[in-house]
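Q: Here's a chain of 416 amino acids. Please give me its 3D structure as tokens.
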Amino acid sequence: MKRPEGFDERPARPDAPADRAGAPRQRRAPLIPRRPSREPEPEVQEARLAPATEEPVVETADPTAADDTSNGSARDRAGALAGAAGRRLGAGLSSVAGRLREYTPDEDHHDPEAERLARERQETERRDAERLAHLTDLHGPDGDGHERPIGAGVRAAETAREARVAKRRRRLLERAEVRRFTRRSRHRRAAWITAASIVLVFGISILVAVFSPLMALQTIEVKGTNRVDETQLRQALSDQIGTPLARLDFDAIRKDIAGFPLIESYVTEEAPPHTLVVTVTERTPVVAVRSGKSFDLVDPAGIVVQSSPKQPANMPVADIGNAKLGSSEFRTMTEVVLALPSTVRQQVTSVKGSTADDVTLTLKDGSSVVWGNPEQSDAKAALLAALVKDHAARNPGVVVEYDVSAPDNGIIRAKK
């Protein structure tokens, strides 16, 4: 009889006696430790074979043996016992085989995750092998015409390139960190540099404007002249030529212009780099004053603007008597004339004032106007214009006397 695999080679035991043949002793299989297996996925359940159940062995008595029992043949009894022992041994072997199958890993079970990881590992190993082969299996001719491996050179070149890239990246990171940590100082330095530049430019501009001949006066323009000789005025100001515009002597300019009495006021304007513009306002005569056989045209300040042999049209003659030009009486008369509306001023032929509170006007039609003092001249002028218009509408050509000394109560009197 063959021994099952896994049993020790031990000497066979003698057959049990006939009286103990009914309960043969079964041999136990050696304990085999369970092999650790990977934990299956939660969705996959490992199928295992159910352990084989021991089939009861039914001992049947051999009819031949039963018949021969009476004969007491020892040979036949031994054969019957051997058959029963064989059947029990077969049942034990079946039990041991089932137990072995229980401890044997299931070869039909497949783990998808493990297979995927295995495939990825194989693919990675394959790519690494190809790259290594590409780097190490290249050959090229040397100086003698023989082929030599150049994989080491390629690896060295790649290593050098990677080192350069890493060095460049490190420099960029270091510069970024330096810029980040020095941002405030750089801003402060930029602000100081900007302020210093502005101050420097401003200072240079001042120096150039004040002391440099690049900004010197070369041209004088005169505007607004009518009665004043422009050439004489420009010649009077010519002593400023060659002086930088920022250093012009305006006191000297004022004294030079004061020599022209017809100039009432003036305005100077610098036009860099070399021009000075002088805009003058000439005096405007308001009244005429008899001087012998001629008439002097005088402005409100008592300055004679010009002389004329005839009385100018549309300009009243001021009768100042013994007063002087520029006196308070003269200024009062000119102030009254300037307050008159243009329509009424054209009709005034003369103005007289013995005192500053007694001003009288004479119109072209012979009518007279009692003005009084120069106070409220605007209200008096409006009242006089209304009275003249009303009288012209009612009694044109009649000589009357207008009294506007009280601007709230105008009076028209018949002139004696």
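Q: Can you summarize the key feature?
A: Confidence is low (pLDDT under 50) at residues 1-24, 26-33, 35-72.
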